[in-house]
Amino acid sequence: MTIEAIGAAGDGIAHDAARRPVFVPFTLPGEVVEAEPGPARGEGRAATLSAVETPSPDRVVPPCAHFGTCGACVVQHWADAPVAAWKAARVAEALARGGFPGVAVAPAAASPPNSRRRADLAIRRGAEGITIGFHARGAADPFDMRECHVVDPRILALVAPLRALMTRVAALHRAGSAMVNLLDSGPDLWLRTDGPLAVKDRATLAAFAGQAGISRIAWSREGTRDAPEIAAQDGPAAALLAGNLIPVAPGAFLQATREGEAAIVAAVLDGLPRRMPGKPRLIELHAGYGTLSLPLSARGRVDAYEGLPEAVAALNAAAGRAGARIKATRRDLARQPLLPAELNGAAALVLDPPFAGAAEQAAILARSAIPRVVYVSCNPAALARDLAAFARSPGWRVERAVAIDQFLWSAGVEAVVTLARGP
């Protein structure tokens, strides 16, 4: 069969004799391949690649020995330029589905290899010992990670010591996980296990933190929503955002790479009005610890809203130290979105929701008098759904759209879309 396109999950798409889609991983557009049909998948079937009879000129040798086994990377066999074009096309397709066809999308600015500063590693205890790494493709269990060309080398350097550590932690019965954030104060580890943490385990973790140079180790029970407790800490746990060192909670959400963060900040600032009144009011929703709030405060007075109390407190404290014009307010925006009256007088609003998007808030914004919305999205499907509310309201247009690729070699893509009223 001939591969006609690459789907949203990164698999090649061909069609069988009945014109039903067949999804073949590790293939590229234009390639003629042999594949073994498998189980049903949506309206078509999954397939297993047997051979590439006619390879694409864009096919490259994957740099990682785990490619094909690891569930994280899906297009490592594709050259950089067509990957960037594919990700930009995915954003353009989302805009079209949302009611804004024909928008030019700047090609995805990709973060370099070995730049990801955040990783969530799965841990399993089995008959052969401890396995630690990303989830295997199509499986719930991890594979034993020995190399990675996406994460920062400092994260990869922790994998072998963590593997040895978990042999001595009784709280791990069978399954757990380890989230590593590379903060500016050093690696920050959030360990989750399926058993309780004993006193001896705490001593083991404290010793490991000192040996591995980890600033903090937090722990919680796997499979629960319990807030993590501090098991060991040697110094502050803080991230540098817009030149401000901000204490963050265990597992705090930070942009995956510094390059991706810089690209998002630049695109958001470019989305602001070229001319604003003196002392303009800017609104930011889902502000987090201030990745966007702090740069925005150089352009106007920022009313920032965020649901996590620790993030609100940290952002207000940082704003106070820096003299930044930011007022952070705690608010559960999923349950209590901002209403039109609360938007009065704002020159622009920045919306950076979680993966699920912000359907209710988008509908309110579309009906409001706000003149400009800069939407930061990490989910093309949610972006398309939320944009449809603006397309249904007269007067809105997409002024600018930028694709950003900080999830190297994955199917993920982020977008910064500027919506404005007027011709």
Automatic annotation (TrEMBL):
Keyword Iron among UniProt keywords: yes
Domain of life: Bacteria
Single Gene Ontology BP annotation: rRNA base methylation
Recorded GO MF terms: 4 iron, 4 sulfur cluster binding; rRNA (uridine-C5-)-methyltransferase activity
Protein's name according to its UniProt entry: Class I SAM-dependent RNA methyltransferase
Residues the entry annotates as binding S-adenosyl-L-methionine: 255, 306, 352
Entry annotated with the keyword Calcium: no
Alphabetized Pfam families for the sequence: tRNA_U5-meth_tr
Ranges for domain TRAM: 1-51
Species annotation: Muricoccus nepalensis
InterPro entries (UniProt xref): NA-bd_OB-fold, SAM-dependent_MTases_sf, TRAM_dom, U5_MeTrfase_fam
Stated family: Belongs to the class I-like SAM-binding methyltransferase superfamily. RNA M5U methyltransferase family.
Active-site positions on this chain: 378
